[in-house]
Amino acid sequence: MSDFKRADRVGAQIHGALARILQEGLRDPRLSMVSITSVRVSDDLRVATVRVLPLGGGGDRDAMLEGLGRARGYLRRQLGRRVKARYVPELRFHLDEELESSVEMVSLLSRMEAERNQAEALAAQEGEE
User: Is the entire prediction scored with pTM above 0.85?
Assistant: First the structure.
């Protein structure tokens, strides 16, 4: 038996299909630069939680979420045509704050390492003199 739950497999299918739908473009300019970071589907396959970020980290996040909310019905219909499932799950969109905080943490650690390397280089120079 596979290690993956059916909900995980359906989530991966939805992730790919939504990415293609958004890439093909929608009329709403708020949705031109949306990046889907993850899709989690409930065990009963009725609800899909989609985590998103503006591509490149910029843009108006609230406007993007509002645009996704308004396009929810269209996106769900398109998913129904592309994903073979008995039910097309309800889509719930959320900002992916976890990824954003991870990027900030990596940036902070990189700066700390650069500062430490600078301090070590200065200490080595002073030791030589």
Answer: no
Q: Is 95 within 8 Å of 65 (Cβ atoms)?
A: yes
| CA 93 distance to own-chain centroid | 10
Q: In tens digits, what is the pLDDT along the chain, a chain of 129 residues?
A: 445 688 899 999 999 999 999 888 788 888 878 889 999 999 999 999 999 988 766 678 888 899 999 999 999 999 999 988 788 999 999 998 776 666 677 777 888 888 888 888 888 887 776
For the chain, which residues make up each domain, given as ranges? Answer: 6-95, 97-129
Residue 97: alpha-carbon gap to chain centroid: 9
Note every long-range contact of 3-12, with CB atoms under 8 Å and residues 24 or more positions apart, other chains counting. 5/43, 6/45, 7/40, 7/41, 7/42, 7/43, 7/45, 8/41, 10/41, 10/45, 10/83, 10/85, 10/89, 11/39, 11/40, 11/41, 11/48, 12/39
Query: What is the dotted CATH code of the domain comprising 6-95?
Result: 3.30.300.20
